[in-house]
Amino acid sequence: MRLIVENLAVARGGRRLFEGLGFAAEPGEAVALTGANGSGKTSLLRAIAGLIRPEDGHIRFEDGHSGLEADEARASRLHLMGHQDGLKPTRTAREELAFQARWCGAPEAAIAEAVGTLELQPLLALETRKLSAGQKRRLALGRLVAAPRALWLMDEPLAPLDARWRERIGALMAAHLAGGGSILAAVHDPLPIPARGVSL
After folding, report:
1. d(CA 153, CA 182)
2. CB atoms inside a 10 Å sphere around CB 193
3. What domains does the chain contain, in order, with CATH numbers?
4. 147 touches 106 (CB < 8 A)
5. Structure confidence by residue, pLDDT tens digits, 182-200
6. Cα dihedral angle (164, 169, 170, 173), rounded to 10 degrees?
7. Which H or E element spans position 19?
8. Does the pLDDT at position 65 exceed 80?
9. Starting at the edge strand that comes first in sequence, how are the strands of the sheet with 2-12 ordered?
10. What is the mean pLDDT of residues 123-149?
């Protein structure tokens, strides 16, 4: 799936964060969004996911040479992983992963595969509020592994991870790109994979 952003402007709290933004993310490509805090990186990801409305411009999705309905693309072709991991604190890691992955259509075998890939088995009986920041991030990534979707929208995906897990998640990202997926990530530190930069 191809993502096209054209002449986009986004405002939050009465302040225009950016305007005239245009770029595309092609299948097999990673794009790193850079810029100062408050420049609009998170807001851009949320606009692409359909959670906020741009002031101007267009966000389009294409499959091959034909357009996709934005609602269809957002419902079944992309994952948004925010800076906050979005985990319910009183659920166990097992319950949270099962809920999120099944919501995205993942079968049980795929959930089990995500548990193995991200080494989540020792965490499954714990409430998510008891997990470290890095463990929470691995749990949040479980949905992306269990329910593959073409476009990953990621907000500081590696921030809470140690060096070992940054390398492991880099390998997962590379595999996603090799399979024709794409990644749009808001970052301060470089991604562990080749990525084209877009500055806000």
Report:
1. 9
2. 18
3. 1-77+149-200 (3.40.50.300), 87-147 (no CATH)
4. yes
5. 999 999 989 999 999 999 9
6. 170
7. strand 15-25
8. no
9. 15-25, 2-12, 56-63, 66-68
10. 97
Query: What are the helix (H) ranges across the chain?
Result: 41-48, 70-76, 93-103, 108-117, 133-146, 163-178
b (16+ CB within 10 A) / e for 3-24 = bebeebbbbeeeeebbeebeeb
Half-sphere exposure at residue 31, Cβ-oriented, CA atoms within 13 angstroms: 23
Which of helix, strand or coil describes residue 9? Answer: strand
| Cα angle: 89, vertex 191, 136; to 5 degrees | 10
Q: In what order do the strands lie in the sheet with 151-155?
A: 78-81, 151-155, 182-186, 30-34, 196-199
**DSSP-assigned letter for residue 86:** -
CA pair distance 12, 62, nearest whole angstrom:
27
Spatial contact of 3 and 48, defined as CB atoms under 8 Å apart:
yes
